[in-house]
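REVIEWER CHECKLIST
Item 1: Sequence provided? yes
Item 2: Single chain? yes
Item 3: Sequence as submitted:
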Amino acid sequence: MMGLFTKKSIGDLQAEADRGLLRRSLGPWNLTALGIGSIIGTGIFVLTGTAASQNAGPALVFSMILSAVGCAFAGLCYAEFAAMVPVAGSAYTYAYATVGEIFAWIIGWDLILEYALSTATVAVGWSGYFVSLMHDLALDVPPSIAGPPGTFNLPAFAIVLLVASLLVIGIKQSADTNTLLVAVKSIVLVVFVVAGAAYINRSNLTPFIPPNTGAFGQFGWSGILRGAGVMFSAAL
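Item 4: Structure as written out by the authors:
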């Protein structure tokens, strides 16, 4: 039973990392771009409209502020652990070094589940934009291959396959590609904000916090909290 709570010392983890085949190939810019890229994507382009229309309304601004506070604390925790245990493995390794093997095992499987679900969410969101773009170009994608859940989503499958292939080629190449895409997305967002500022209709911002419909998470302050949860999960 005590074996379930066995911990690995930082020295043992470092020795295992030194014997491994992984090498450090990412610099500060790549790592910063990876963090920004995970936020500028699902959180901004896919789930923002959903959270605003179903949860918080114009008060989604408050949801994003709450989410930003949570992300800041999560980032500080990861920074502390990364400085204390400077090896690969993320939360799995950090748990192994601090609370024991059983918790590391649970967290490892949680991470696999989290990445599987988040990848599916982003892929489906990307598919929706791709289908919309094709429609604007008078090239309609049949719903049978890009429809709602329950059908095979070919565009989503294709983008997952493409990104997986890029990762297989090499982490440095995929990180450089991500850095380029983050730069492009950041410029697009700045242009969107500047160009769209003149089209703000203030009447759409009243009431700023829509009254709750009677169900938790559907507008009101509970909607702001649920919107913050959606934004937080998207950012991570």
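Item 5: Key structural point noted by reviewer: The radius of gyration is 21 Å.
Item 6: Recommendation: ____
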